[in-house]
Amino acid sequence: MTSGLLLEGGAMRGLYTAGVMDVLLKHHIEFDEVMGVSAGALFGMNYKSKQIGRVLRYNKKYITNKEYMGFYSLLTTGNIMNKNFCFNKLVNELDPVDFETYSKSKENFYAVVTNMESGQAEYILMDDLKNPDQLEYLRASGSMPFVSKPICVQGNQYLDGGIADSIPIEKMMSMGCDKIVLVLTRPENYRKTKTNTLVPRLFYHQYPNLVDTINNRYIAYNKQLDLIEQLEQEGKIFVIRPSRLVKMKRVEKDPDKLQEMYDLGVSDMNRVLAQLFDYLNIQKSDSVR
After folding, report:
1. In contact, 53 and 128? CB cutoff 8 Å
2. What is the pLDDT at residue 288?
3. Model pTM greater than 0.90?
4. Helix H segments across the chain?
5. What's the rounded mean pLDDT across residues 156-171?
6. How many Cβ atoms are within 10 Å of 202's Cβ, its own excluded?
7. Chain-centroid distance, C-alpha 261
């Protein structure tokens, strides 16, 4: 059996994912393949480093710090997320990533990015976060369009992975995962609607494939949700999603809102934990890889 954990993005809604992950970590549930998109990648890396509570801790502590993320960073650096703060100070000094545990963990962790030239998704194996290129791929995965500069890695320009493949369920299935746990950050029955097609053309006119991908994203996303619904009904995947709506801004500055979203992830995961053990065919004291 090959198991996979798939983590949707959603900016600060990713605190829900953090809550789910911490429950999984506390029960020593492991996966062969872990894939994160956007915030799912930025927060999901902590699953491989086994750092329970880190996502909630640093977000609550620094979310009101203008050096972390927000419009001050956008105005002064051109990025909604401050590169030096988020990918240097935070990971190395303020709340360090456990690089040793990360490198020794058996999961294969992938970050999804969008190639601006092709408009297609790429799935980057993140096996060494000390590698500057890999850290840039991770940064690219969470670089939201319109409020982030393109990230150049090995001569290619990248942005947020959620543009091209918001919920890469088909990719995980193609990797041979026959047991997939999917963490969504929107409640059941959510669907995307068409957005203004002019803005992408103004911002990214040099990248016509990217423009097409952005403007058709709602179609691709809703098709993915339809497929997920079918696979869930057939018992082929296990889906955990918010049981209620928590209204949050994409760059939420209220620590109480972050705590609320995290707590919902914890409670929702605990509520279905027995079903998850059944799905993965494990005993509570066991772990699955």
Report:
1. no
2. 44
3. yes
4. 14-26, 39-48, 54-62, 71-77, 83-84, 99-104, 132-141, 169-174, 198-203, 208-215, 217-233, 255-271, 273-280
5. 98
6. 10
7. 15
